[in-house]
Amino acid sequence: MNYGAYISQDKVRKAAGPGGGHGDKREGYEILFTNIQGCLDKLKLSHEDWDWQNSTKPQANNYKKWLKGQLINQHPVVWMIMCKGDSHQGYPAARGHLDHIEPVWGIFSNHSLQDSTVYDDDVLVHGADYGATKYQPGPSLYRAFHTLEDSTRMDGNCAIAQSGYGRNEYYPCIDTDEDYGYAITGQVGASGAPHVPLSLAVDVFDEPDVREYQRPAKMHGTVTVTGPLKHGASYTIYRWNTYEKIPDDPSDYAATASSSHKFKAAEGDYKFEDPNTILSNEMAYYRCVSN
Q1: Residues 6+ apart with CB under 8 A from 241
Q2: 78 and 56 in contact (C-beta within 8 Å)?
Q3: For the segment 26-39, what is each residue's pLDDT rounded down to a tens digit?
Q4: N or C: which end of the chain has fewer CB within 10 A?
């Protein structure tokens, strides 16, 4: 959504190939380090990946530096972490120390964000992939960088964490030895002229579980075009309801988009409230181009 795309969990899993975890061809597959790259490519999301295969071990310190660099550049990260009391065996069982997958989307520091040095009191913002539950009143969790790593014994920084499904995801640790992270950097083909940066917000926080026969929510999206916009210039916001319809050439956007909205820029950002709803179990991609 930071780059103007809503993609339901159901659609993400169905875009992924087999990765050694849960899932099947009909329902889609669990996202793991074994299949996330192909999934992001298929969804037309550009990404920068932590090179766990070629990075020197132990990796935690360099991984944290990579992680901070991505967050400073406003690239949200998918990290794969260990949870207290779980097996840390990963998928497939013989490879990787991980138990869970979470989003990381923010950073705080007492130092200039032009400084890429990792300081102990730097703090990141992450989610547990549980949202608002009886265990956590909100979606954001905060961790100082010096508390992030631990061995598979989980007797260091994560010794204080609670064990058990539904709790240990709120205080995970990265592996001291080998780590996994994938930074989302935008929509493929949507950077550079004539494109203009935008983001998307929706008015429904949690996604109903359609696999448990819950009805999908009808969401309303607000697109914020951040520019820079040229005062008095004309722009068009395009929407597609599937990544498969997005063409490579912007000159083909009008012929393929599900809907569009034209506007002339004034001062500051431009906000567009899309009158067409987005179903929570579907997807919507937005792009803005100068005319």
Answers
A1: 258, 282, 283, 284, 285
A2: no
A3: 999 999 999 999 99
A4: C
Q: Is the pLDDT of residue 134 over 70?
A: no
Residue 19: pLDDT above 80? yes
pLDDT in tens, 242-268: 999 999 999 999 999 999 999 999 989
One-letter identity of residue 152 = T
CATH, domain 45-185, list 2.40.10, 3.30.450, 3.30.460, 3.90.70: 3.90.70
Per-residue pLDDT at 89: 86
Residue 220 CB coordination number (10 Å): 14
More confident residue, 104 or 208: 104
Residue type, 204: V
Rounded CA-CA distance 269/223 in Å is: 10
> Is the Cβ–Cβ distance between 180 and 205 less than 8 Å?
no
CA gap 100, 102 in Å, rounded: 7
d(CA 121, CA 150): 17
Would you say 183 and 70 are in contact if contact means Cβ atoms under 8 Å apart? yes
Q: Is the pLDDT of residue 131 over 90?
A: no
- 61 contact partners, CB below 8 Å, separation of at least 6: 118
